[in-house]
Amino acid sequence: MTQVPAELKERRRRHDREIIALAVPAFGALVAEPLFVMADSAIVGHLGTPQLAGLGVAAALLMTAVSVFVFLAYATTAAVARRVGAGDLQAAIRQGMDGIWLALGLGIAVVAVTLPTAPWLVDVFGASETAAPHAITYLRISSLGIPAMLIVLAATGVLRGLQDTRTPLYVAVCGFAANAGLNVGLVYGADLGIAGSAWGTVIAQCGMAAAYLVVVVRGARKHGSSLRPDAAGIRASAQAGAPLLVRTLSLRAVLMIATAVAARLGDVEIAAHQIVLSLWSLMAFALDAIAIAGQAIIGRYLGAGDAAGARQACRRMVQWGVASGVVLGILVVASRPLVTPLFTGDPSVQDTLIPALLVVAVSQPIAGVVFVLDGVLMGAGDGPYLAAAMLLTLVVFAPAALLVPALGGGLTALWWAMTLMMTVRLLTLWWRARSGRWIVTGATR
């Protein structure tokens, strides 16, 4: 009778070690990404307000364009991890190369669209007459780095699928340091202004892509994988990523609707909303790190044909998600007196911000489970269900959010609508996880 609890404890410890080994470096790499924009903002900010405003518009456009293709990382992680679990490293890296070739093709297409339409895009985002020229300059130059950015996404997915999250962390840290140094040198040393900042970012992104390619190519040669583009493989990668693209666009629509509603509530509300959203996004990085571990671990178990191991890993990661959400919620409540004055000195914004933050704190355990189950189902290659579930969530959230100003609600009511959105995601993902239909074993789904 004492043997079963001992086995259970050992199994939990094994899962915990795997989750920590993958999630901690993944969190570091995730946090490094927004530091690129922060470094650019800090350096360009000293050039003047129009330049900083232009950077803000261009950076928002770039981040939107790149984040839409995050499926390159997610789909590649799941596909590669399955083949790793099946013991076929040659096929795993071949699958990863297909994802990288897809990323290159998509990146070239995005550049071809962005370069001629840059003035129109900047105008649509409402840049002022003084900021627009700077935004166009930054957007056109930095868009040249989009192929490299997308290659980084796909190659990151390859390494995550190979159960390696340390290399992406090292590359991200080196990339951030290079970006900061190049920006200072080109903006001030070479006196290129905002164009120097854009070129610095492009060079840093290309350097990161090159570093990833060196690692992947070395692995391909070691295991005898072909490096040539394969039309069938690239097409399969695109088909696997298409549902995740729908999921990502639906989630982006949720965030855009929330911001639009906050803007309609007034200047105080939109200012407070941006602060809450920034903190919510920061906590999402921590939870997303566990989800990334879930993608890699679940894919490997299913590829190895170990359905029982996949279920056990899923249960343990859900426990991690709940615990992480509780800790984050407590941190939000405890740090509220310090965080609020850090972001704004306006008493009216602070008064609006505090109750909305409490709603965010309450919802963090829900978010913890949502992120974990999202990662589990991605790791299982259950993209079509994730797309359908997110579309349903959007359908529920949109009218609830749009009713907030109509019914006289404020920012707190809007964040309750965001909590409703997360609750719907929780219910749909939990139902799928309990059904077991996501469990499809084998090297491919």
UniProtKB/TrEMBL annotation:
Pfam families: MatE. Keywords: Cell membrane, Membrane, Transmembrane, Transmembrane helix, Transport. InterPro entries: DinF-like, MATE_fam, MdtK-like. It is found in: Cell membrane. Its main location: membrane. The chain crosses the membrane at residues 19-37, 57-80, 100-121, 141-162, 169-190, 196-217, 244-263, 275-297, 317-334, 354-373, 385-407, 413-431. It is a multi-pass membrane protein. It comes from the Bacteria. The keyword Cell membrane applies. Belongs to the multi antimicrobial extrusion (MATE) (TC 2.A.66.1) family. This is MATE family efflux transporter. It comes from Streptomyces peucetius.
